[in-house]
């Protein structure tokens, strides 16, 4: 049994009308209501059966939160302070919208992730970030205490204040959860590398680029080739560099037959990054400070 008086709303179940969510019509507008119940069903439940995009419940406050949900259960998933669910045809289980320097959705936790994203689909992402305006940056992650930052700008360029590394495999001592730290190589300019080996016969070999590699490098710019002979010789040098490959010859007209290894570093098509350009990290100052619980 429920006894209405003037306390905060407790457990709430939302049932949205068939055509979506809108603030044009309300099945129930709560100004001051309280209640308690002991059944498994919601203490307060309203259904909007209209066809004009009206919500089932609207919460409005001029000085505080429009709607507060709290759960004291220790049962864990899927219980929450606020739970949103939708069936096919609706846009989302929960939608948050903010205008005028206001967060659309804000999540905070003192002991666990502030926001968690899971997906049971093999087709769609667990987390998607989108900016629909020109120049808008879709993602930024900042530690305001230590200064660490990772961001993705409007062109898809990722910027890190820290190192980039991968959890590499090893011959022994590694497992699915225990790996070796391998750091990503850094460069002063945007370049792409390839390497390989070629058999030199009579002091000469022509090395042709892999077609996929030649397709993505900027052939209008010079590229770097480092060659190492895998055997005794008079030394080797690189000549006749072109958009599809280069020649390797032995010094002083040598006629050795041996294997040579090479490394090519070339500029890529469509990249205009400046050499050792500076980056402004004060974008984190646009983030609002953490807020207290409502």
Topology:
Elements: E1 12-15, E2 28-29, E3 44-47, E4 57-58, E5 139-142, E6 149-152, E7 158-160, E8 165-168, E9 180-183, E10 191-200, E11 204-208, H1 211-216, E12 224-229, E13 236-242, E14 245-250, E15 258-267
What does this structure look like?
The model is unreliable at 1-30 (pLDDT under 50). The protein has one helix at residues 211-216; strands spanning 12-15, 28-29, 44-47, 57-58, 139-142, 149-152, 158-160, 165-168, 180-183, 191-200, 204-208, 224-229, 236-242, 245-250, 258-267. With 294 residues, it is mainly β. The protein has 1 helix and 15 strands; from the N terminus they run βββββββββββαββββ. The chain is elongated. The strands form 6 sheets. It has a 3-stranded antiparallel β-sheet, with no helix packed on it. A 3-stranded antiparallel β-sheet has the order 10-15-12, with no helix packed on it. A 3-stranded antiparallel β-sheet has the order 11-14-13, with no helix packed on it.
